Every structure is written in C-alpha cells, then in structure tokens.
Structure of PITH domain-containing protein:
Amino acid sequence: MSTESTSSIHRNQVDLLEHIDWSSVECLNQSSSHSVVNALKQGYREDDGLILESDADEQLLLYIPFTQVVKIHSIVVKGPEEEGPKTVKLYSNREHMGFSNVNDFPPSDTVVLSPETLQGKPVVLKYVKFQNVRSLTIFIEDNQSDSEVTKVQKISLYGTTVETTVMKDLKKIDDNH
C-alpha cells in the first residue's frame, strides 16, 4: 500500500467504466439472479440494493477486458459489512483463469479490505504493476465474516488510458539540419 491517501481519487484518474469490453466480461461462481452487471454497470452499481452475489461458496472470479490499453491507479469495492469481500487479488493481463489455476500465478497486487474501506473508499494499487493493462482479473478469495456468500455492491476502477502513437501522424524528419 502506498503512502498516498486512499480517501480520494487522484485528480488525473478517471472511471474506466467506458473502456470496459462488456461483450467479454465474465464472472465465475456468480448467482444467476445477482450477476456481475449489478456491481459493474453504470446505474446498477449506484443502487445498493442491486448486488453481485457468489453462488456455491464465497469466492468470485471476475474477468474484465478493456477496449484499449489502460493504466489502473485505484479500485473501489463496496459491499456490506458482513458479507463484503475481504481478500481481493488482482491480475493484470492474465486470461483464461479459473478457480483451479488462480493460485498458480502470483497476483499483480493483493488488497485486504476492511469494513471501513467497503463503504466505497478508493484503494491505491501498486501502480507500477498496472501500466499496460488490456484485461484485469479480480479474484475475491473470501469475505469479512468467512460466510458462504460474498456480496458486492459496486466495483469501480480508476486510472487513465494509455495514449498510443499513431505512426501515420508522425512527421518525417528531414536530414538537412
């Protein structure tokens, strides 16, 4: 955890919501009636009554691809005090992960959420690990009370897009100084 305050979003950071490739978002072990759109989509995630809920046990595995390369600065995870997520592991550019192999890879960062953080406070990530992100996998390992069901009201990712150089826009440099 960096020394930077976790109470506010850095002024240059934006909500990366509009850069999510919705057609490819996945969530393993989600309840069919309480799916990932409730926690991620604009409008849904602002309604605390709409939640993402785990199904067979407390774990959730979310795959969030982006439509362009982004840098992720911080994450907001909102949830109830008892069933809200506790240990959250984040993996940058790690595709096709499942519960069977999620522990085979070291996470880019691990965040341990407190009941206070779950009220919607941003958590600053190891920024250096999230510089060229095409996809983010979020593994919610457990919850605050070690109960069978984990509930997530909101997940927001804050950062910036990575400006890519368009080769045709570059001007040819003349050799004559």
Q: What stands out?
A: DSSP finds one helix and ten strands in the chain. Residues 1-7 have pLDDT under 50 and may be disordered. The radius of gyration is 18 Å.
